[in-house]
Design a protein that fits this description.
alpha/beta; Jelly Rolls; Immunoglobulin-like; eight-stranded parallel barrel; six-stranded antiparallel beta sheet; 19% helix; globular; binds beta-D-glucopyranuronic acid
């Protein structure tokens, strides 16, 4: 659970300027022995754009800083909490290894309770070596292929720059030694709020749960789990553009310890029924984008002002949703979406899967990452659906593999619909049948049928009907768009101009709005973002409706008109 401060819990943020060495031959000891002369590195942030030396560094980045454990932490469970560290992270304190985590987009903790209240030296090795077996796979193998991008530099299996570093906040935390380990909240629009509480130990004592003045008391006779319900009277529902939130205050009292944790939640229900996606019983239409965590200098580092700006632009343009393509985003972003009433499709860091993964060896790893994501994000009302993968290659070859992923997600969270984002043909996508929503990415008049928007739209219309007639599921066009150089104009519209992007987006939307089975349109992408080098990327993937600086292209005004009027 995200570290919080209250009567029983404390946290100290360790973000700031750290020492940094790339490829530290001396390993952890390199710092201690003075064998290296470190550069400065800002945390949170990627190393690539902070210092020209490191743009194309994709290896082991060594970070160091000192920190103090205050006296007030004595007798508590003390741990370090990393929001995310790219690739594989190994953590050392005073030369001793205290933790290891794989996967650059989800948090982990390292217990350091045994350390004394004193000054300590923290070293983190963020290993961002491009690895064909990491999740997501960060390197292409010769056999993989990828629509003309296989020789991009660096050759990742996905179309975004493989930024490295400590990307989210690092906290030093102290909590009671017997503590509330997890809380799961589920709501019904009747106001019924049910909760499952997990404790660190089997305990005798009492749990008190309070929300909106309603109280539920549970006594513990040696259990480590407890469940209960309360009913909020006249519930204010969580709605699009109106993120009504409640607090669920969980207090634990035992003979030896007390603890408290407050979860913010929204009262809402999501359901797929026939061809409709229902929020609180009403059909919703997704208008929005696929996004990235990406900005100048910061790389994938979280920045509150940047995201405040992005949410303000989402509102300005009339969007109601986005997908966390292609990995789980910083938890602060989900909090912001909760309060703004923005719907999120939460995507697992599973982009670039292909048949070499579809076997027992990788099933466990893939399912584990899905569980990790759901466990982190399950209480956010903004998350209305899980996307378990983006554009898996030849998914039909992994039919049973995808069935198992779908089951994993449903077992972990029976309350939200699931999807995966398909690209290839119908024949390549047999697993769609295990999912609730059919999300598809299509680039007519961009990656094929160049320059001919009308013909592209005709192709799209037929392709969509074919998908729908086969699977009969609600359809989300999860990506469509065109690379566009801000400032490039022409008449008539030609590829790469602002006119072309604008015309293409509005023409595709015209097609979508004629099909009753369509539940939404997500434009690729919200903003330009840093891509790998090849002849089709001018620094960035330029399909942004906003530039990387967040200035609107012509298409932003076009979308604003469409999305605020209909
Ligand atoms: C889709 C991918 C996305 C790419 C986009 C593109 O899901 O990550 O950036 O295409 O090519 O295939 O712009």
């Amino acid at each position: 659970m995200f570290p919080k401060i209250n009567k029983y819990r404390d946290r100290i943020c360790l973000s700031g300027v750290w020492d940094f060495v790339a490829d530290n031959d001396g390993g952890e000891k390199g710092f201690a022995n003075g064998l290296v002369s470190p550069d400065m590195m800002g945390v949170p942030g990627s190393w690539n754009e902070q210092n020209t030396k490191y743009l194309q560094f994709h290896g082991k980045g060594w970070y160091q800083r000192s920190f103090f454990i205050p006296d007030s932490f004595s007798g508590k469970k003390v741990f370090l909490r990393f929001g995310s560290v790219s690739g594989k992270a190994t953590v050392f304190v005073d030369g001793e290894r205290v933790g290891y985590h794989e996967g650059g987009f989800l948090p982990f903790e390292c217990d350091i309770s045994k350390l004394s209240a004193d000054e300590h030296r923290l070293v983190v090795c963020a290993d961002n070596t491009l690895d064909p077996w990491s999740l997501p796979p960060a390197k292409l193998l010769d056999s993989d292929g990828r629509m003309g991008f296989s020789d991009q530099y660096p050759a990742t299996s996905y179309d975004f720059f493989p930024f490295g570093g400590i990307h989210r906040d690092v906290f030093l935390c102290a909590i009671p030694s017997v503590y509330i380990k997890d809380v799961t909240v589920r709501t019904k629009i009747s106001g019924e709020v049910s909760f499952d509480i997990e404790l660190s130990d089997r305990t005798f004592g009492k749990i008190t749960v309070e929300s909106d003045g309603e109280i539920c008391e549970l006594s513990l006779g040696g259990e480590s789990r407890a469940s209960g319900k309360i009913t909020v009277k006249s519930p204010r529902l969580w709605k699009i553009g109106d993120g009504q939130l409640y607090d669920l205050r969980v207090s634990l009292a035992t003979d030896s310890a007390c603890d408290e944790y407050t979860v913010s939640y929204g009262i809402r229900e999501v359901l797929v029924e026939g061809d409709k996606f229902l929020l609180n019983g009403e059909s919703v239409y997704f208008k929005g984008f696929g996004k990235h965590e990406d900005f100048h200098v910061l790389g994938k580092g979280f920045s509150a002002p940047l995201w405040v700006k992005d949410f303000s632009l989402l509102k300005w343009i009339g969007a109601n949703s986005f997908r966390t393509s292609h990995y789980p985003y910083d938890e602060n972003i989900l909090d912001m979406a909760d309060r703004e009433g923005v719907m999120i499709i939460g995507e697992a860091p599973l982009v670039g899967l292909n048949p070499r993964f579809y076997n027992d060896e990788h099933q466990g790893r893939v399912n584990a990452v899905i569980k990790e994501m759901i466990s982190r994000d399950k209480n956010h009302p903004s998350i209305v659906m899980w996307s378990l993968a983006n554009e898996p290659g030849q998914a039909s070859k992994g039919d049973a593999f995808f069935a198992s992923m779908a089951k994993t997600a449903r077992d972990a969270d029976p309350t939200r619909p699931i999807t995966y984002v398909a690209h290839q043909s119908l024949a390549d996508n047999s697993p769609v049948k295990y999912f609730d929503v059919m999300s598809v990415t299509r680039y007519p008049a961009w990656y094929f049928i160049y320059g001919r928007i009308e013909e592209g739209c005709k192709w799209l219309s037929e392709d969509m009907d074919e998908f729908y007639n086969t699977y009969k599921k609600p359809y989300l066009l999860a990506e469509f768009g065109a690379d566009t150089m801000a400032g490039l104009h022409c008449e008539p519209a030609q590829m790469f101009s602002e006119e072309y992007q604008s015309e293409l987006l509005s023409s595709v939307i015209d097609v979508l709005r004629q099909k009753p089975y369509v539940i939404g349109e997500h434009v690729w992408a919200f903003a330009d973002f840093k891509a790998n080098q090849n002849y089709s990327r001018v620094f960035y993937n330029r399909k942004g409706v906003f530039t990387r600086e967040r200035d609107p292209k012509m298409s932003a005004h076009t979308l604003r008109k469409i999305w605020t009027e209909k």
